[in-house]
């Protein structure tokens, strides 16, 4: 028979510094007593409604985990076995979902399973295995799938696309996989992650599947797409959205160029390169590019060839005023999302499967999205300029 909760004894324990909750918490016996009393009341109500008459038949025991600690719960039974308790169901081992919420909260902060188990043990005096924690975090997967298939807006003025790489175990070995994040700017000027795509390789076929997915989920038009020089992407996006302008990220182009410039020349080369991407207009930029090639073309032909071959997509931003230029000439907006990803994954050398990676990145997206409550700076001015530059493309979708 359960021992009655002694308030005087509990008060004395509290004065002596004993914790209210967690392992050996003062409140655990009280929670046990209240829960068992409620179950007995449920059984009595059930017996009163039974025809023909039914009666009590002892109790069964099971260990229940609660936010105040674990305890052995005595669940009353009836002779006919028709009693189905509602407060703590037959196979239920957690009194509330508070512990699961805490596990997910710790997971969303990037804690390892070992750290999560340690925190839960300190807070509640419960021992959770890696398998249990994994089962809890796996509850994010249906939510992730629903999020990945949700309908999107019909028009996005800007879309950025960039990749981040992770090692994922596949068929007994770890392989490098790229996670591509698609970030959009809505007509209200707010950021929104449109999709998360995982692939071992990139190319026109993969990009076509990404763009087709966006179209199938409701996207009808994208004004400008900013990408990091991904091979095959301009062709893929224009095959689905032929009017979309593709701006290659200037910052990525500069970084890639400097890899091929000798360290002793980098300072001078950058000084000559700045007039190209900081020019007031496309004509001035092309003049600066000619001068750059005249000085450095013989020493670094690969670098200059890259700028020439990509110039059509690198120079898109010159046709727009400063407010639009700031938004599109770099993929910094999406790199900020990837910094959030890195905070969560910095303790993970590799992932045992794709699901373990994606569910962690998903909570990273939720964390980042909480900050996107306001439109970007000068958005109304930018939108009015876009309506002029892309005449007719935003008709019927702007609220004026």
Task: List its traits.
2 domains; five-stranded mixed sheet; two-stranded antiparallel ribbon; elongated; transposase activity
Description:
This protein has 400 residues and is of the alpha/beta class. The protein folds into two domains: 7-137, no CATH class; 152-389. Helix content is 47%, strand content 18%. It has helices at 7-15, 28-49, 98-108, 113-124, 130-137, 140-148, 204-216, 233-240, 250-258, 266-277, 282-296, 301-309, 311-314, 322-328, 332-345, 354-369, 379-389; strands at residues 56-66, 69-78, 155-170, 173-185, 191-199, 221-227, 245-248. A five-stranded mixed β-sheet has the order 5-4-3-6-7, sandwiched between helices. Strand 4 (173-185) and strand 5 (191-199) form a beta hairpin. Helix 7 runs parallel beside helix 8 and helix 15 crosses helix 16. It is elongated, with a radius of gyration of 30 Å. The N and C termini lie far apart (72 Å).
Low-confidence spans: pLDDT under 50, at least 5 residues? Answer: none
**Derived structural class:** alpha/beta
The total of beta strands comes to: 7
- The DSSP helix count reads 17
Largest sheet, in brief, is:
5 strands, mixed
Element order, helices and strands? Answer: HHEEHHHHEEEHEHEHHHHHHHHH
Overall shape: it is elongated
Radius of gyration from CA coordinates:
30 Å
Percent of residues in helices comes to 40-55%
The percent range for strand residues is: 15-25%
């Amino acid at each position: 028979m359960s021992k009655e909760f002694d308030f005087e004894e509990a008060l004395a324990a509290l004065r002596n510094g004993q914790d209210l909750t967690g392992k050996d918490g003062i409140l655990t016996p009280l929670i046990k007593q209240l829960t068992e009393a409620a179950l007995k009341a449920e059984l009595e109500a059930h017996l009163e409604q039974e025809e023909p008459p039914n009666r009590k038949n002892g109790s069964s025991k099971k260990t229940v985990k609660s936010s105040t600690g674990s305890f052995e719960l005595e669940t009353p039974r009836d002779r006919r076995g028709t009693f189905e308790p509602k407060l703590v169901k037959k196979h239920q081992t957690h009194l509330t979902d508070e512990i699961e919420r805490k596990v997910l909260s710790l997971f969303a902060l990037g804690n390892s399973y070992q750290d999560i188990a340690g925190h839960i043990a300190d807070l509640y005096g419960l021992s959770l295995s890696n398998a249990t924690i994994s089962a809890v975090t796996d509850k994010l997967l249906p939510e992730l799938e629903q999020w990945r298939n949700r309908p999107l807006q019909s028009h996005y003025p800007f879309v950025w696309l960039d990749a981040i790489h992770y090692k994922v175990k596949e068929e007994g070995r770890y392989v490098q996989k790229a996670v591509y994040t698609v970030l959009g700017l809505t007509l209200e000027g707010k950021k929104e992650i449109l999709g998360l795509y995982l692939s071992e390789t990139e190319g026109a076929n993969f990009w076509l599947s990404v763009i087709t997915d966006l179209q199938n989920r409701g996207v009808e038009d994208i004004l400008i797409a900013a990408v990091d020089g991904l091979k095959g992407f301009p062709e893929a996006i224009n095959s689905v959205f032929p009017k979309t302008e593709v701006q290659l990220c200037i910052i990525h182009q500069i970084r890639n160029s400097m890899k091929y410039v000798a360290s002793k020349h980098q300072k001078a080369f950058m000084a000559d390169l700045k007039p190209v991407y900081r020019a007031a207009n496309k004509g001035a930029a092309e003049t600066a590019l000619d001068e750059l090639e005249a000085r450095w073309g013989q020493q670094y032909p690969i670098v200059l060839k890259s700028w020439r071959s990509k110039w059509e997509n690198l120079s898109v931003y010159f046709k727009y005023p400063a407010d639009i230029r700031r938004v599109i000439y770099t993929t910094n907006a999406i790199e900020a999302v990837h910094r959030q990803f890195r905070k969560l994954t910095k303790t993970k050398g590799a992932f045992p499967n794709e699901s373990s990676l994606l569910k962690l990145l998903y909570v990273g997206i939720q964390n980042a999205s909480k900050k996107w409550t306001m439109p970007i700076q000068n958005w109304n001015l930018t939108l009015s300029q876009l309506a002029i530059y892309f005449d007719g493309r935003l008709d019927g979708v702007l609220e004026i």
